[in-house]
Amino acid sequence: MPGLFLYFYFMKTAQLHQHFLEFPEVCTDTRKITDNCIFFALKGDNFNGNRYANEALKKGAAYAVIDDAEFAESDRHILVDDTLKALQELAAFHRSHSKAKVIALTGSNGKTTTKELINAVLSQKYNTIATQGNLNNHIGVPLTLLSIKEDTEIAIVEMGANHQKEIEFLCGLAQPDFGYITNFGKAHLEGFGSEAGVIKGKSELYDFLTKNNKHVFMNGDDPVQIEKLGHYIKKYGFSTNNKDYYMVELTAADPFVKISIEDTSITSQLIGSYNFTNCAAAILIGKYFNVSLAQIKSAIEGYAPNNNRSQILTKNGHRIILDAYNANPTSMKAALENFAQMPGNNKIAFLGDMFELGTTAPEEHQAIADLAHKLNFENVILVGENFYGTDTLFQKYSTFNDLKLYLNDGNLKGNSTILIKGSRGMALERILEFL
């Protein structure tokens, strides 16, 4: 009986895959329906995608995958037991029938930037696809895998996690051939419980790769990665001081990261020494895949950050470092230390609350406020309930609306150098409207 069930299970996924091969575009949002896509009616805490299946079909979807028989009104409705599981199983099935090499990427900070850099480098020579934006969870990873085409040679798949076993599950779907962990930091402590929990959770990528005798890329200067990988043979690293690995050198970050490799200088458009390892990883992976040094240099130098990530802007005489895409204690510390070293007049740091820290939130926010004092910043403006609760002499506002009153009073003088850093939910890029 178990074997019979398994046979029908694979037939169901295989049949859905045949539909996908005919209509190879997937959509989960009726606002983004394209002609002849397959709509997956996902459910959430506040919505039931089954209710929108007919709307998707009317807008041009070829099929609607649903998991509630009440909404199955035609042969264009594909009924499954669980729509999310069907999406994930279809993605795993599609990946298993693809010849593309998959590079998986995770870490506490810098995932998306590193992914974009790797894609920029490898696309110089190969037909690549990569995770769009930060669609890196249990829905985003399947969508990325389903974007693999017949001519795709390399797929760069970003994986995010906020609890144990999540990376393990995503690896089960993506079956990566290669992997890289950017770093281990104080991110998603609410779900992981501690920094040790973060290391354990993120390391599930390396656990999968080593268990399956796959290739590992690593930071040869990271003691945690060195310990984790030990004497594993299929590892390839970069380092600033260990000649057993590919040698890279950070020559400047004033503010843009400059790197020296093999007597070649690369000047990126990324600010902050914390972006050095992101560039170094892309360079290492490019070298592994035999991308020429000239192509690597062109790709790194041509990549410009966007979407509120380490962007340098100018507005009304202000020089602005906009890094408001996300924040955790590790990335906040790095941003402040980098800002302290940057040249500039009348420095102002706007710091927004860091989310998903659980019970550690008060102490972690206090530590950042203390660090700002230690770095001798005179003008730091803290925003959010957690920062509002810190013991500090810096200005602090519990909400953005309270901050707006300060901004509207014309307190920001021209020719300032401004850092804007906070978690996504704080949306501190709104400060730009008041400059």
Automatic annotation (TrEMBL):
InterPro entries: Mur-like_cat_sf (IPR036565), Mur_ligase_C (IPR004101), Mur_ligase_C_dom_sf (IPR036615), Mur_ligase_cen (IPR013221), Mur_ligase_N (IPR000713), MurCDEF_CellWall_CoF430Synth (IPR051046), MurE/MurF_N (IPR035911), UDP-N-AcMur_synth (IPR005863). ATP binds at residues 107-113. It catalyses: D-alanyl-D-alanine + UDP-N-acetyl-alpha-D-muramoyl-L-alanyl-gamma-D-glutamyl-meso-2,6-diaminopimelate + ATP = UDP-N-acetyl-alpha-D-muramoyl-L-alanyl-gamma-D-glutamyl-meso-2,6-diaminopimeloyl-D-alanyl-D-alanine + ADP + phosphate + H(+). Residues 106-285 form the Mur ligase central domain. It is found in: Cytoplasm. Its EC number is 6.3.2.10. Residues 26-94 form the Mur ligase N-terminal catalytic domain. One of its GO terms (molecular function) is UDP-N-acetylmuramoylalanyl-D-glutamyl-2,6-diaminopimelate-D-alanyl-D-alanine ligase activity. One of its GO terms (biological process) is cell division. GO terms for cellular component: cytoplasm. Residues 309-387 form the Mur ligase C-terminal domain. It comes from the Bacteria. It holds the Pfam family Mur_ligase_M. Pathway: Cell wall biogenesis; peptidoglycan biosynthesis. It is an enzyme of class 6 (ligase). Keywords: ATP-binding, Cell cycle, Cell division, Cell shape, Cell wall biogenesis/degradation, Cytoplasm, Ligase, Nucleotide-binding, Peptidoglycan synthesis. Belongs to the MurCDEF family. MurF subfamily. Involved in cell wall formation. Catalyzes the final step in the synthesis of UDP-N-acetylmuramoyl-pentapeptide, the precursor of murein. This is UDP-N-acetylmuramoyl-tripeptide--D-alanyl-D-alanine ligase. It comes from Zobellia galactanivorans (strain DSM 12802 / CCUG 47099 / CIP 106680 / NCIMB 13871 / Dsij). The gene is murF1.
